[in-house]
Write a structure and sequence with these properties.
By secondary structure, this protein is mainly β. The protein has no helices and nine strands. It starts with a strand and ends with a strand.
Length: 102
């Protein structure tokens, strides 16, 4: 069965990362891994729902100051926590979110 895809737009629109992306009213940060793959990280904190934002080279929650790895979304304060993520694929120069958040 094919996973649902949501088009995010042309690759050129995402030269500056992390980039804010909203899918079905849910905010994400689009990031790129060191292997060159794109990934969407949920911009809501798993602790108590704070708004995640980039700060220096990490993602940061201003509510209680948890920080997250900017590629994997793993919490640097408590590695058993992480930002939910969605897979992203590139086809013919356009980005697509694939499948559900996990
Ligand atoms: S809500 Fe993000 S650290 Fe508490």
């Amino acid at each position: 069965m094919n996973e649902p895809e949501i088009e995010l737009g042309p690759l050129d629109a995402y030269m500056d990362l992390p980039a804010e992306v909203t899918i079905e009213d849910t905010p994400y940060w689009l990031v790129r891994t060191s292997e060159g793959r794109f990934r969407l990280l949920l911009a809501l904190c798993p602790h108590a729902g704070g708004d995640i934002r980039p700060m220096n080279d990490v993602l940061f929650c201003p509510l209680h100051f948890w920080t997250f790895h900017a590629e994997s979304g793993v919490c640097l304060n408590d590695p058993s926590e992480r930002l939910m993520q969605r897979n992203v694929t590139v086809k013919e120069g356009r980005l697509y979110a694939v499948g559900d958040p996990y």
